[in-house]
Amino acid sequence: MIGARLGVGREAEVHAWGDAAVVKLYRPGFGGHRAEAMALGALDGHGVAPKLIDIVECDGRTGLVLERLSGSDMLALLERRPWRVFGMARTLARAHLAVHEVAAPADLPGLREVLASRIEGAGLPSRLRDHARRVLDDLPDGDRLCHGDYHPANVLLAADRVAVIDWPNAARGVPEADHARTMLLLRWAAPLPDTSPVTRAMIAVLRSALARRYARAYRAGSPPLRSAGSWLVVHAAARLSEGIEAERATLVGFLERRARNAGAGPSAT
């Protein structure tokens, strides 16, 4: 059943699986298929993610058989049609809001616990680590489905629908926390090492406009975001656990400023 390889990532490879499906084969040692399967099960019938068809084992590797969708991810489309940035930002926000309408399975990890663990492994100076943990301690749990890595490359645009893909980081939490992770990625995420010069230039030029318009559209469709700045602090600290050296100075600088502001009095959120 396994056909041509269609994509490859750090945790998994995607292959054709017959004519109407794909199989996402996880590499040994990676367990993201559990969260992804639970998230896709919760999303079934909501029209914002590929349908999970089956879970299989292939040569000792777990594979998720998924509905095959034709189309391009939003980042690839922005590279070809940068003038559509404002419309795509609204689409990005609408799809994220639709995800956050869905209740998370009870067995999904709690986002606050996930972030606490990542902060501990971020290699931060103790002052910044402790500040991030204090901020996290004051933030709420939640019961909504959170993607955990929502950005344009994980949003597929087909002719008649928008589908959010790549769910191994799915967790249970408050929508505002998931929104803050997306804001961090839109503003500060470094391109992957094999990103083409054209795409790097496009990201540099468009990221500010995309982030602003996405934030505006998301806020227009959500309850008031009262702790957005606090969640951004937590996500910045947790992001450092991913070891992306190109981002470290920016994220540490942001955390330093927020810690200083907190020392002088309550920081604005």
Basic shape: globular
Give me the strand/helix succession. EEEHEEEHHHHEEEEHHHH
| N-C termini distance | 51 Å
Helix content: 40-55%
Q: What is the CATH superfamily of the largest domain? A: Aminoglycoside phosphotransferase (APH), C-terminal lobe
Provide the CATH topology of the largest domain. Answer: Aminoglycoside 3'-phosphotransferase, Chain: A, domain 2
Mean pLDDT comes to 93
Number of helices: 9
Spatial strand order of the main sheet: 1-2-3-5-4
Q: The biggest beta sheet, please?
A: 5 strands, antiparallel
Structural class: alpha+beta
Number of domains: 2
Task: Tell me the total number of β-strands.
Answer: 10
Global Rg: 19 Å
Molecular structure report:
This protein is of the alpha+beta class and about 270 residues long. It has two domains: about 1-65, Phosphorylase Kinase, domain 1 (2-Layer Sandwich), CATH 3.30.200.20; about 70-265, Alpha-Beta Complex (Aminoglycoside 3'-phosphotransferase, Chain: A, domain 2). About 45% of the residues lie in helices and about 15% in strands. It has nine helices and ten strands. The strands form three sheets. It has a five-stranded antiparallel sheet, with helices on one face. It has a three-stranded antiparallel sheet with strand order 6-8-9. It has a two-stranded antiparallel sheet with strand order 7-10. A hairpin with a 4-residue loop joins strand 8 and strand 9 (about 160-165). Helix 4 packs antiparallel against helix 5 (about 125-135). The longest helix has 25 residues, at about 195-220. Mean pLDDT is about 95; it is low at about 265-269.
